[in-house]
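thought: fold this chain, then report.
action: predict
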Amino acid sequence: MRPLIRVAKQISIVDPFFNLRPGSGRYVDTLREILIDLENSPKRQIQFQIHYRTDDRRPPAEFLERHAGRWIDGIIPDGIHLELFEWETDPQGEVFHDRHLLCDCGGLSIGHGFDAAGDHGNALVSIHSYEVSQQLKAKFEVTSSPYHLAQPILSISSDGHVSRL
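observation:
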């Protein structure tokens, strides 16, 4: 992932199970590593998004607004906002299952997902052509997505402030 992260101006983590809550997997560990790479990369304007699927166990937007900044306190570099998108799928529509890192310069799929930080296991990583990564990225644009936003988009700034977009 590092070569894409170090040059991208738009970064989207797509993982239906992504979760910032403590004790819900190693997602924050992976996020921390990505953000460290961004901190050590040439400075530039970056749009950073995380896209995940809703389910009955996810807390409401108000809960995330109150707590998400504290859960990832100190790991977002200055000048970067982390945008959270929670998507609802139509039972008769397209399935939201695959996990990707999608950037303006390319993308890849990660078989196990983004909770695979550390050396505790293996994950198959497949690199996409530029065209495929842009087609996948379009599925997570609010105006063209086959999915529907389940909650308002939340933005977390480097100082931990959370706001609705």
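thought: worth noting. The chain has a mean pLDDT of 91.
final: tokens above.
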